[in-house]
Amino acid sequence: MRKIILPGEKIADRKVIMEKTFVEGDSTFASVMGMINDEGRFIPLEGVYRPQPGDTVVGLVIGSRHAGFEVDLNLPSTGFISARDTRIRLNVGEMLMARIREASEGGDIDLTEVRRLPKGNIIAFPSAKVPRLIGKKSSMINMIKEQTNSDILVGNNGYVWMGENTDVPRVMNILERITQRAHLSGLTDDIAKALSS
Amino acid sequence: MEEQKLIVDGKRLDGRTPDQLRPIRIESGVLNSADGSAFIEWGGNKILCGVYGPRECIPRHEANPYRALVKCRYSMSPFASLEEHGRSGPSRRSTELSKIISEVFEKVIIAEEFPGTQIDIFIDVLQAEGGSRVASVTAATVALADAGIPMKDMVAGVAVGKAANVVVSDLGKEEDNLGQSDMPIAMAQRTKDILLLQMDGLLTKEEIEKALEMAEKGVNEVNALQIEALVKNYETALTEAKLKL
Questions:
Q1: ipTM of model
Q2: Is CATH 2.40.50.140 the classification given to domain A56-117?
Q3: How many CB atoms lie within 10 A of CB A164?
Q4: Contact A181 B113 (CB under 8 A)
């Protein structure tokens, strides 16, 4: 296993701009726990999701107003879908997938390309580990979907939607396993084994 | 108890040398529903810490549009200790400690990343035996790292002071109550900035210099345990994975 980096640990003797790091003087330091990969990039293991334009998110409609809809995204602030922007009429309690058009510093998150999701469940997954859950070219998530024969959608915000026909306990077990082992290599093989057993 | 008996033949009441710490055990990620958590046993102290956030700031008018607020709530259980410390609910003492601990973490958390939000640190002292504020700071740092809240530094604390005319590190309950001076210190690990320093009783300039030296040594030991606690969770997963393969 690679060495685990801790908050405040130096990761480079020069100024590098990377996610979850900060520069002080001429050096770069980690701000959360993480690891360094082969290319020398810092891979955060923990962390709070910060919305970026272009990210795909899964959300839950929690408010409907004349101007649009409010969406819970597992973030301090809610997402907003302008009624001008979409023809879909959403109801409170409905689930959706959308793209972030704009995320202001003040916390306003504008959503676009809204897709209503059928009935199902939403659970929260650690957002720092979402790349591992999706895998290279979606290999991991596709494997889980095939093996468990279910509909699963993952948002960058960490919300995971599961369709009605999903074997929820089984998928939850797999997600828990990925959370615990996201920092290990050979994760896809490990999960493949867990799925076939 | 007479003051002089606090130290006999260079050994303290519990058999420690002046610069020796009590046994410390830290665990991270002990709570399921908190974003980050830690449990610390430091001598007779047992402290549980949970961290939430960043989340919506309540009340809203307190929100700072430039940075996240760091809110800390330190509280002692009714059974934490004898005497007045054991009163649960808000008290003069818990208000003071909540304030100083939140000020420690305001300095290290990169709060500018989350404007308009708040980060909550909840500290519950289940059992107290002197030095609970530094143990709380130590546990809260582990919980914050576990929650993935960006920090510029890790903070560890230790109390130093004077008992029976000897400068000692990590005062226990008797030394705290009957000793001559008690100085809790929290230090940032990388920069060695002092983020918390309080003092009861009196120390001379020379004694403070010696105490600070002792504190730095103690803080380094505590920090090593913090790191061990955080890394342990990842290593456990590794051993489990190896056993299965």
A1: 0.90
A2: yes
A3: 11
A4: no
